[in-house]
User: Fold this.
Amino acid sequence: MRWGYFGTDEFSRSVLERLLNKGEKPRLVITTPGKPRGRGRNLKPTPVKSAALEAGVDVLTPEKLTKGVCEKLKSLCDFFLLCSYGKILPSHLL
Assistant:
């Protein structure tokens, strides 16, 4: 089955890493865009994005979950696991 993972923070990173350690690799990881951090205000990726890229999983970081983005996600995955994503999912995705 093709599945996707929604997550952003350290807690959701730990859940993703446990899934990966058990051999469960998502087809796609969806996370929020990175935020400027530090003195130089450089964009820093979310913890989930870092873990997904280390594991070789494709990552999407949409600003908003528009209807078009949601349709694309539905065509790529059969179901989604959500863990501490940080945004409210729109009804057209649910």
About this structure: The chain has a mean pLDDT of 93. Residues 10-21 form the longest helix (12 residues). The first strand starts at residue 3 and ends at 7. Helices lie at 10-21, 47-55, 67-76.
